[in-house]
Amino acid sequence: MTSPSHSFFLSFRRPAVSSFAVAWTRSTSRHPTKSRTRRPFAFRASSTVASEEIQKFQKVQALSLSGEIFAKNSHVFLFYNILMIKTRHLMTPPTTIQYHDVLTVTVESLTNLGFGIARVPIKENDNTILQPEAAATTSTTDEDSTEQKKWVVFIPNVIPGETCRIRIYRNHATYSDADLIQVLTPSEDRIEPKCGLANVCGGCQYQHVKIERQRAIKTQQVQELFEDWGLKRDEFPKVLETLEPSLRSTNQKKDKDSGNSLKSYEIGPIGFKEKASRRLVDVPYCHIATPAINTALEQIRNEKRMEAIEERLKKPSKGATLLLRDAEGVVETNHTEYVDTIVNGLTFRFQAGNFFQNNPYMLPKMVDLVVSAATAPSPKGEPMTHLIDCYCGSGLFALGSSSFFDVCVGIEVNAKAVEEAKGNAALNGIENCDFVSASAEAIFQSQDPVSWVGRECWWRGGCDDNNRKTLLVKDFPRDNTVVVVDPPRKGCSPEFLEQLDQYRPARVVYMSCDPATQARDASFLVGHGYKIMSVQPFDLFPQTRHIECLAVFDRVIN
Ligand SMILES: C[S@@+](CC[C@H](N)C(=O)[O-])C[C@H]1O[C@@H](n2cnc3c(N)ncnc32)[C@H](O)[C@@H]1O
């Protein structure tokens, strides 16, 4: 039931030194809430991230040429994910909860990191935890109806509603982490994971959950995130059901023993980080990668092992990172090489290590929905004619929408990606798109006119340079202008949102790979005259906790 993804990065340990290795292997934080420094932008109480960790992430992004960091690299994603839990009943740690305590708990919900949340009742006055038996019977999902003090515990590999035995392995100031010992009352949505490494490998969080329930969980999480940001149910339409990729993997061979076949070579494991650990788990076969990647993976593992054996006298280092990108069935491992991917008939060429959306089985749907949201008549019932694609990467949404608009302009901070976007326009014979290399907020005040070829020329089969039109973005007709945003996981910057607010386009089409920051930005837009028209999650990363989500906003107050 998985949808294979077509690029990923693996870490491995080898004797030779690699500049990638330090960044990949040193930094990890499973629960950002324990960090000391508050983010400068307005996250809620429980959502703090150490600026040092953000810097580490930026370093990693730079090293990977700002390429897509596939979900498998959870150690990268985790640097700045926001843990959205309600802290109303939290207090100082109970004095008696000890490392290796065994408790029986009922799982209430899942965090957006994929961990189950259980709230363990503790004694009113002395902060000591109730006996496990009592905890099991008094745990409740109705947090508003009780004054009972509760202690939050996070548990991996569980499903809401399940009662489990768990063992505490770490205490934090406001919660504890536990290992799952046994599921006492399994959910009817619990299944046997296809991958023998599912409980160990940090890449997937939900393999033990039926795919339909995974999607229902994602839909609910998006709904809750929007509500957590003060957006009441009547202020936004019901979050639509999470969309599944259009094709399913035929790559369903059960390979339960794959994790046990590791032999003792010099090189050590080649794979992903273990759950809640810095250690690597050896992954000879990945069930959520494409068949082409799995074939290439076997080959590259053998090559690396041979290299390691030949270099065995070299001083050991911390490791290195491998990139495997499947573009139309061809796997590229050199991040500087260019690859082609076709989406809805358009060819996108980009460096293998650069950002490009990861799941080819979902991409056509994502582009289609962006296009239909962008092209719907304006709130005044007029056609939308101008499109600004902020955080445009190599031009996916601007180019994908171009045939429906008079002019599209994309802005992107990565100059190489802008070159690719321009190249992709030329490659596809698209003449009404322009691209700017700068930070997104610069677009609204840009003094460089957008240059394009008008539709009337298309019918004549092209124009010479004299027929090019130019217009400053600040002169775009706001009532007919749509701004597409697709920022990194941290969401839009305050500067960008302020500029967007002042620019006041008729519509904002917001694609996000982190609905937590998207919900934060949505609350800003709703507070500044926009109405949420739709919220559509996508299961871009099946079997993992990651959610892609499209939200559409129309300006209703001038
Ligand atoms: C999630 S990707 C989206 C790319 C593109 N929309 C796509 O779907 O292929 C986010 C992009 O934002 C770019 N980016 C990050 N910070 C930016 C900023 N301040 N201004 C403009 N672009 C930025 C990154 O380089 C990356 O290409």
TrEMBL record:
Check the record and name the PROSITE patterns matching this protein: SAM_MT_RNA_M5U, SAM_MT_RNA_M5U_2, TRMA_1, TRMA_2
What residues does S-adenosyl-L-methionine bind to?
A: 357, 391, 412, 486
Q: Does the keyword Kinase apply?
A: no
Which GO BP annotation is one of this protein's? RNA processing
Q: Which UniProt keywords apply?
A: Methyltransferase, S-adenosyl-L-methionine, Transferase
Q: Which InterPro entries match?
A: MeTrfase_TrmA_AS, MeTrfase_TrmA_CS, NA-bd_OB-fold, SAM-dependent_MTases_sf, tRNA_(uracil-5-)_MeTrfase, U5_MeTrfase_fam
Which superkingdom, per the lineage?
Answer: Eukaryota
GO MF terms on file? Answer: RNA methyltransferase activity; S-adenosylmethionine-dependent methyltransferase activity
Would I find Nucleus among this entry's keywords?
Answer: no
Active-site positions on this chain: 513 (nucleophile), 513
Q: Which Pfam families match?
A: tRNA_U5-meth_tr
Could you say which protein family the record assigns here? Belongs to the class I-like SAM-binding methyltransferase superfamily. RNA M5U methyltransferase family.
Query: What protein name applies here?
Result: TRAM domain-containing protein
**Species lineage:** Eukaryota, Sar, Stramenopiles, Ochrophyta, Bacillariophyta
